[in-house]
Specification:
This protein has six helices and no strands. By secondary structure, the chain is mostly helical.
């Protein structure tokens, strides 16, 4: 039988890593250069897809303890997957700048509160 808490922890760690990867990919970019570079926004959108997919496998009882609009994370993943042709890169840039730092803080808080100090993916 699968351990849902362990699965939740792994998924939260995947989300944390995906957020870090997004920040790494855009660290030297401006909104203009980000919007011009297909390879960068493709990489960023893939990481957002990972975040949105992973959150679906985190125990809802854990997420309910934290005041965050989780539906937005799921909805953005669905937009990327199903309405990709309607995505505006300027809006993605704004999400990275305004929303992603808060999500990172919440994910780190959950990892610390629910699972102790470990906040890195284990080496497998």
């Amino acid at each position: 039988m699968r351990d849902q808490r362990l699965d939740s922890q792994k998924r939260l760690l995947h989300i944390s890593k995906a957020i870090d990867d997004i920040f790494k990919y855009v660290s030297d970019e401006t909104v203009n250069t980000f919007c011009e570079k297909d390879i960068i926004h493709d990489a960023v959108l893939f990481q957002f897809s990972i975040i949105g997919e992973a959150i679906n496998f985190v125990d809802p009882e854990i997420l309910e303890k934290y005041n965050y609009p989780w539906y937005k994370v799921r909805s953005f993943r669905n937009l990327i997957s199903h309405e990709y042709f309607n995505i505006k890169m300027e809006a993605v840039w704004q999400i990275i700048q305004k929303d992603l730092p808060e999500l990172k803080i919440v994910i780190q808080s959950i990892l610390k509160s629910e699972f102790g100090k470990q906040s890195e993916l284990p080496v497998e």
